[in-house]
Design a protein that fits this description.
With 448 residues, this protein is of the alpha+beta class. Helix content is 35%, strand content 29%.
Amino acid sequence: MTDVLILGGGPAGAVLARRLTGLGHGVTLVTCARRPAVEGLSLRAVEGLRRAGCLEAVAAAGMPAARRVDWNGLHTALNGEHLVDRSRLDAALLRDASAGAVALSHGTAAAVRRGKDGWLAVDAAGTMLGSGRFLVEARGRRAPNAPAQESGPRTLAVGRVYLGPAVETGSAAFSFADGWAWLAALPDGRRAVQLVIDGAESPARADLTAWHAATVASLPQAAGWIAGCAPLGEAEVRDATAIRRSPGVEADRLRIGDAAFAVDPLSGHGAYAAVAWAFAAAAVNTLAADPAALPAVERFVEDRCAGLFAHAADAGKQFYRAEERWSGRPFWQRRAAWPPAPLPTADRGIRRRAVVVNDRIEERPVLVTPALPRGVLAIDGVELGPLLDSVASDRCLDGDLARRCGRQLGQAPGRVAVALAWLANNGFLPGGAKPPSALTTTMKNANS
C-alpha cells in the first residue's frame, strides 16, 4: 500500500502525482486508455506542464500552431495553441509520472472502497489495481458524480475527425447562429471539426453523425476545412457543461481536476485548470501529517476551487457576450447571462485565511482587498500582517522605518522596504499614507 492512490492519469492526476513524490510520498497512479481525440492546449497550459517537470508531455504538445478566430464579424489571428493527439499526450504524461518515481497501474477502476488500512481500487474482475492511505479522484467527468454546487447552461461538444491531404498545422474558431465551432488540422492529415451547441438542441444519438454532417455542410468555413477529406469513424458527443462540484475533502480523500469542476471550452481554461490543481499537493501533504488540519484544508480547497471556476466562467461569459450578431438566439442568450454578476464586496483589511506555506496549509493573517479576495500573505517574503503590526507599534515618524521593522521582524531591510512601498502605494499604512520623509527612505531602500 502506498501513501496516495490517484485515479486518473490526465494532466491533473499526473502533475499532482509528480508533486507528491517530490514531497516524499509514495504514489500509485491508476490509469486507463481513453477514446482518441484531438484537443487544443493553451500556451500557459503547456508552460504549466513544463514547470511541473512534465517534459515528455511538453514534447508531445509540440510547437504552437497558428490560430485564427472569426467572431462577431471580426477576423483575428491570435497567439496560437498546441494541437495534440490526446492519446499521445496521455502516454507522455505517464512517462513523466514514471520518471518522477510514481508507480503506474493500468486498468479501469470498477470499484473503490475503504479497506482496513486505506483505499482499494479493483477492476470489474475484482483484480487489485492499487491501494493507498489517501485517495485522490482525478478521473474527470468519468468520476462518480458529487452534488453540483454551480452549473452553467447544458452544453455539448459534437466532434468528428477526418483524414485528408497534409496541410499546414493550424486551428480556427468561429461562431454561428446556434453555437460555435472549433477546427484543427494536424501534420498527419487529420482534421477535426467540433461543434459546440446547447444541450436542448442535441439530436438523438442515433442521428448524431448525420446531424454533424448536415450542420458542417451548412457552414462554409467548416465545409471548406474538410474539403477533400474522408471521415474517420462516426461523430462523437461529450458533455462540455461548466459545472462545479464539491471537492469532497475528507481526512483521507479529495477530488481534483474535472472531477471537482469542469469549465466551458470557450473559456480556454480547461487543461490549464487541470494543471493548476498541483496546489492540491499541499492539501494531501498537510492531511497526511496532521488530520486535525482538515477544517483549514477544506476551506482552502473549496475557496481555491470556487475561485478558479469563477474566473473561467467569467472569461467564457465575456467571449459569449462579445458575439452580438445572434444575441437573441437561445444558445447565446443563456450563456451571455451566466454566471450572474457576483454581489459587490467591500472586504478590506487583515483577515485569517488558509494559505500554503512550505507545502503545508496553515491559517495565517493575510491582507484582503476587493480585488484580491483570497488575500496577500507576503510581499517579497515579508508577511504583511506582522509588518503592519510592527509599523503600528513604531513611534518614530522619521528615519529608516524599513530598518527598524526589519530588525523587529528578523527580515532584511531591503525586502521590508519593498513590502512597505507596496502597502503605501495601496493605501494600507496607518493614516492612509506615509510621512514624506519615511516614504522617501523606504523607496530609497527598495531601489538599493
